[in-house]
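Example S7 (structure tokens).
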């Protein structure tokens, strides 16, 4: 039993000390953290004058996966920031991922055909942070999923 525990502990230590061989790289820069900022509004057609939706959970999902990579809750202005750490970026591919929200909710009575609004996002910049490189993305408008 003690040998098994020592073996498992040594595997854990080796894994934690080795660098990740795969992960998100943008223009040759290894990304440690990814941030996606956006604003959720009560509209089906990207109307930027529509009222914001507060207190709603938005999720980062990628095609072919039923798993949320990350979630955030909108503030009173409808703004949110989804944050992924280096481990979460292993499953992240900006070409196949989007921010999604389920509607309707109490503060917004629009009815998307499939109950979901989706927003794509684009890279704004990559900055050096205290714990590594941070890739900053911003969402476009939320629209009805097709």
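Recovered sequence:
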């Amino acid at each position: 039993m003690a040998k098994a525990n020592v073996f498992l502990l040594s595997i854990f230590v080796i894994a934690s000390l080795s660098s990740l061989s795969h992960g998100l790289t943008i223009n040759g820069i290894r990304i440690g953290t990814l941030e996606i900022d956006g604003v959720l509004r009560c509209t089906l057609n990207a109307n930027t004058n529509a009222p914001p939706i507060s207190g709603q959970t938005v999720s980062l999902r990628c095609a072919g996966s039923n798993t949320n990579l990350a979630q955030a809750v909108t503030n009173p202005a409808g703004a949110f920031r989804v944050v992924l750490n280096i481990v979460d970026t292993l499953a992240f591919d900006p070409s196949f991922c989007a921010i999604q929200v389920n509607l309707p909710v109490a503060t917004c009575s629009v009815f998307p055909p499939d109950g979901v609004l989706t927003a794509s996002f684009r890279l704004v910049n990559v900055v050096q942070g205290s714990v590594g490189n941070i890739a900053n993305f911003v969402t476009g408008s939320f629209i009805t999923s097709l």
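Notes on this example. Residues 11 and 17 are 10 Å apart (CA to CA).
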